[in-house]
User: Fold these one by one.
Assistant:
Number 1:
Amino acid sequence: MRIEDVEVGAAYIAGIPQRLPPEYRTGHGASVAQWRADMQLYMVRGRRIAVTVTGFGDAAGTVVVTRELPAGRVALRLTAEQAAGLGLAEGQEYEITGIVTDEADRVITFPSRVEHTIPARWLRPPGERLKVHPDSVRFHRALVCRDADGMTPQEIDHAAAGALEQVHHVQGLALDDPEHDWSALVAEVDHHEWLRIAAHIRSTGLAAYDPRTDPDAVEDLPRVRFGRSAPPDET
């Protein structure tokens, strides 16, 4: 996205590259908050995150964004009375850090916010959908064909129903978290392939599916390249 098109206060989807630019890989946070922000950005490499633009960065073409994070670790500064009650030496300040749990030992999380300065070109409109590369489509279709090999029509129908449930589940997650966009699209590819196989086996009257007799089957797993990374080993 162009810097002139960015609106302060608006929500966007930030696509974080798998390989961060050198200035993000070699910098060291000058404070605990900056170090935490640097680590959080490193942890979301290759993912899409929901952010809100709060301003423009000092460097040309950059924006300041914030995103919400659940915090499970908290710090509690002790009062002088509390420190004395624990038998701690006077004249010092003490802080307890750790996690908060309820009576069922479940960890309680608290809202937290982290701030990043990133290039404006990483931003995308919140409603933008990803597109699956044709090689990735073939790869996932091949996986379904391999899994369906030898299945009966009833088993294939059951698998198609399960794939549809997965589509609905992941689509629901993607409504709140853009990190699930890719998974939702892949789930749709899987479901469509199960439906295609189900239609094929019923039209041919076969007792079990055989991808070797299916002219539209993808039998061999294609090599899939993600960016400039090397293709995965074939197994």
Note: The mean pLDDT is 84.
Number 2:
Amino acid sequence: MSKTTAAAARHLANLLAAEDALTTATREEARATRAATRATARALKARTLRTEARQTARAAERTGKGIATATRRLATREARLAELVDAARVLKAEATAARRVRRAAERRVERIARRAALAATRAVEKIATRLGETTLTPAPQADPVLPAEQVPAVEDIEAHATRYADLDAQAKTYAKLADAEKTWLRQLPTGTYGRVVITRTPGRSVLDGAAVALDYTGRGAVPPRKATRTTFKCDATALMEALATPDTDTLTLTA
């Protein structure tokens, strides 16, 4: 198993465990919320009964009848109300704690899910690349090369290689200078500065290769691939060094 595949498997296992923990936390929050709701309802009912008992006690005091019974009922209901209020307060705190645990579990799932998605994307990219490399693809277009009898003299080849090396070096130098100037100019806001106009157009969209690979692999298909042109390189380093170093034999003969 490659490191990429192992990392994807590890993150997916962590994601599974985190999702299980989130499911448990969600159930616990629902249970605690239901218990707190029922306790609050009982406390409200007890408060209503206490209010009725208080009114009854006041009426008994006014009439002078059943004062002892009304007082005992009021005391009982006040004690019951205090007990239910305390229980509701405890259950409400438990529901709040359960909600915090559930939110923390959700954040952990989101964090691990992002890591798992990134690791899975990398693994799929490697798998898709491996499948694409093993699948037959059209041969790249080859450079038109001269037959052996038409190959120019070495002197002509060296002359062209020298000019190519000089022009390539100049092009790279000018490209770096142009990039530096462009970087400086990109700091300017859009507008007109004398005879210079700075504008910006929206960038183009780029095909998401990772998403394409995921889609094809998910359907059990191999992502389409095409071969690129062969890389060409002309190494004239030895020739340029020879041209840059004076020929000592020629200098001796000249002297």
Note: The beta strands are 191-193, 196-198.
Number 3:
Amino acid sequence: MTRAPRHNPVPVACLAALVILAACQREQEAAQRVWLGHWFALGETLSFVARRDCAVGLYSVVNAEVKSALPVTRDVAQMRREIAGRGAAALDLPGQAADVALVAMANHHRETGMAMRRAGIEARACMDARSESVFRHALDDGETVLAWDGARRALLLMMPGEGLLVVAMGEG
């Protein structure tokens, strides 16, 4: 009587665990770099943390320009129109802190403004010391360019003077 060869169940279990673990991440660095690359000239990844409930990426930017694929606006009403039409937009208000712009968006269009704030708050669970420091500084900096990607529920803060971009995503 010939016995069928037995397969070692350990590799199969490991593969299943990897698939489940990958599904638990909110975002992956390579995927995040791809969609950000349409809007910003990215340099190196300085920090990236992703879990099921949040993702935070901190990148250097090669230049301080937002690419034309992401509309840059000068007031929250125009930003809201662009988000409604294109799904994403940036707000550049030199001299005004990004946190003030977030409040202005919440006052203008509560749903959008609160979604932006929620993404930043929920993402704190994925922030390491460096990304949290940059995020806090970016909120207070009057030169920060604030952006929102409604489809990904991602808050983006680019600090042109420091050459940094932080992306904050909550549960979505």
Note: The first helix runs from residue 9 to 23.
